[in-house]
Amino acid sequence: MTFDVAIIGGGISGLATAEALRRRGRSVVVLERQVAAGGKAFSERIGGFLMEHGPSTVGAHVEAATAWSRSLGLEAERSELGPDVRQRYMVAAGRLEGMATHPLSLLTSGYLSLPARLRLLAEVVLPRGRHDDETVAEFARRRFGREFAERLVDPLVGGIYAGRADEISLRAAFPALYELERQHRSLVLGVAARRWRGGRMPGGRLFSWRDGVATLPRALEQGLGGALRTGVAVQRLERRSRSFRLLTPEGTLEAQAVVIATQPHVAAALIETLDPAGAQAAGAVAAPPLAVVYLGYQRRQIEHALDGLGFLAAAGEGRALNGAHFCSTMFAGRAPAGHVALAAYFGGARQPELGRLPADDLVDLARHEFGDLVGARGEPLLARVRHWPRGLPQYGPGHTELVQNLTALPAREPGLFLTGNYLRGPSVAMCLELAGETAAEVDGFLAGADQQADQAPPRAAASR
What is the number of helices (H) and of strands (E) in the chain? Predict the structure, then answer.
């Protein structure tokens, strides 16, 4: 069977790319090796609680996220952050230190020492950096001081990437900050200039949907209908003269173009014989194991006000977890009345061995951490664990060059494209943005191929 485009991988990236191509009038097929599509975007209702096994928020500041929500008819189900999200919390010497959500709270909070807060003010007079690919930790130390880097930036990287700030590339992971310094010298002055012009800032509001982030892939699945095939693994990808052949246990498919929307190690295996350089680049992206522990309590079992998104912990605090979410505070309907829900995150690049622990051990660790930090008492009413053997992609030094290699794949192998959370950012919003751009690029390739076919001279008549 022949299609315009075959998409390998049925996570958010693959589904959104397929739906965007379908809307452009292209015939598509999505092949997902798991029995269910959606990838890590998996939301589960359990007795009145809602567990997010993977991503739990979507960034409203990325226009593609809101555009998809609208086009899929999901705005009526959209949930904004709850009114009780008033603080951001950091672990400080074994307790939670709260700060108001306003940026200036850094200058008034006691979380940073007075010398560290005064050091922040010096940022506006510092010279522009000379390093193209320094780590996030190096950048933060240079611009804001060591204490700011260790106590604020390191836990932030732990929360976003489950990574270490001294192992993550600023240019790859936070390109907006890199550009602010490059264009304005000072980040503070750059932010002020963008606000003055009304430009988009690096950061913004978060939202979800009533039944969680999995609402998005479910809606995309409905639009695709029979074009989505689950439980189908692509065993081999072969180049034909003007198309590709995909070998699966259920038979062979043919497509004029192929989009690989899998995890990077799977992409590496699929393109190994077609493009060894691209395979090497994709295989170099690490994704250490990560585990999510979800606990439900009666509200009276928790001493803390839970008046924030959750909390983050700097590596220097020596905590087992990277951070936690106060799920029932973040969005309405995430726990029954009189109850609360908490989620703890273990593993990643910081302590990958914790991401592999058995479920019972992880529940015990989470109970201990929550008992210590939010005053959780007694047995939780609900305890669930999700292991992700491959967690979030790590954007290490040199990642920008890896991405440049991978995005140049269509130039080396026309009709072969990659998309996914290891190319531009791990968030749902960035995956949606990249999926839309990938679809446009594929459609352009197909249009060019169609034009070439129309202009090709007719075959000469056979000699008699």
Answer: 18, 19
| Gyration radius of the chain over CA positions | 24
Question: Exposure of 460 by Cβ count < 10 A (0-12 exposed, 13-18 middle, 19+ buried)?
Answer: exposed
Contact 345, 323 (CB under 8 A): yes
List the one residue out of 242, 291, 238, 232 whose CA is nearest residue 262. Answer: 232
Task: Evaluate whether 201 touches 61 at the Cβ level (below 8 Å).
Answer: yes
**What pLDDT digit, counting tens, does each position of 418-445 carry?**
999 999 999 999 999 999 999 999 999 9
The whole-angstrom separation of Cα 168 and Cα 308 is 26
Beta-carbon contacts of 399 under 8 Å, excluding residues fewer than 6 positions away, are 169, 172, 173, 285
List residues bridging with 388 in a β-sheet. 290
In angstroms, what CA-CA distances link 257 with 123, 140, 166, 295, 413?
49, 42, 39, 44, 10
| Token code pair at residue 303 | 């001493």
Q: Kind and range of the H or E element at 363?
A: helix 359-373
The first and second tokens of residue 202, run together, are: 């690096």
Distant-in-sequence, close-in-space partners of 294: CB < 8 Å, separation ≥ 6: 49, 51, 52, 327, 341, 342, 343, 382, 383, 384, 385, 386
Q: How far apart are the first and last CA of the chain?
A: 35
pLDDT digits (tens, 9 = 90+) for 171-183: 999 999 998 988 8
DSSP structure string for 235-278: -EEEE-SSSEEEEETTEEEEEEEEEE-S-HHHHHHHHTTT-HHH
446 token code pair = 């197909």
Angle at which helices 428-455 and 63-71 cross, to 10°? 80
What is the residue-averaged pLDDT of the chain? 93
Element (H, E) at 138: helix 136-144
> What pLDDT band is residue 381 in, cutting at 50, 70 and 90?
very high
* pLDDT tens-digit series, residues 21-33: 999 999 999 999 9
Q: Cα torsion for 193, 111, 154, 142, to the nearest 10°?
A: 50
Q: How confident is the model at residue 457 (pLDDT cuts 50, 70, 90)?
A: low
Task: Say if residue 65 is exposed, middle or buried (CB neighbours under 10 Å; 0-12, 13-18, 19+).
Answer: buried
Average pLDDT over residues 220-230: 96
What would the pLDDT profile of 296-354 be if each residue is shown by its tens digit? Answer: 999 999 999 999 999 999 999 999 999 999 999 999 999 999 999 999 999 999 999 99
